Amino acid sequence: ITTTTATITSGTASTSIVFKPGNPPPKIRREADLAEPLLEQRAIEQREPTPSIPSYLSAFPASAISSACSCLSIPPRTTTVLTSSKATTTQTVTTSKTVTPPLVTSTKYPCATPVSSLIPTLPFGKSNDVGVGDLSNSLYGQGTTGTTLEGCCNLCYFGLPNCIQAIYYGYQGCVVRQPAAPTGTGVGISAVCPNGKFAGLTYTPDLAPPFRSQGQIAGPCGQVYNNL
Asked: Is 146 exposed, middle or buried (0-12, 13-18, 19+ CB in 10 A)?
C-alpha cells in the first residue's frame, strides 16, 4: 500500500509591509549582464557526398569484391531465455491537508528622495480612522523638520509614535494626527508603532487632499494599504 499526501492551499496570502527610511539600495548588475553578448558560433564541416573506392581494389572484378565481403552477413548466435512473471496488486491511499498561504513581506521606502509629487501612491494615502479612537493634531512648523515635504513624511513614518495621518502645507508645515489613547493590537510592535498595528486601520489613495495642502501622508501602523 502506497500513501501519498496532497497539500491544499486555502485562503488569501497576507502581506506584511515593512517601511524603511531613505532610498532603496541600488541594483547591482551581474557581470554576465554587462558583458557583450556572445556571437553565435557554427561549425562548418566539408564532406564528400560519396566515399571513393581505394585504387588497389580496381584490380579486382566487382563480383570478387562482393564475394569477399559476404562474411559480414553471418547471422549472430541467439539465446532463448525463459522468464516467468507474477501479477501483483498495488493500492494507493491519498490523504490531504489544508494549509494557509505563507505571509508575504514587502519592503517600502515611502520617504525616498525626491519625495514623489501628489499622486495616489505612497507616501500619500487616506486613512479610514478605524480603530484609533479620538485623534489629536500637532503642528510641526518653523524651526522643525516638518517644514519640508520630505521632513513631514519622515516625521510620520519614522519620527513620531502612532502617526495615523500627516498633512503637509507648504506655507505652515506638517500637521500630524495621533491617537489620544492608542490601543493597538500588539501585533507588529516597533518604535513608531509601540502598540502594534491598529485593527481595521486601512489606507486608500489620497484622491481629495485638504485645501491648500500637498497631500495626506499615510502612517506606518495600518493593516492594509490598498493600491498605494
From this structure: buried
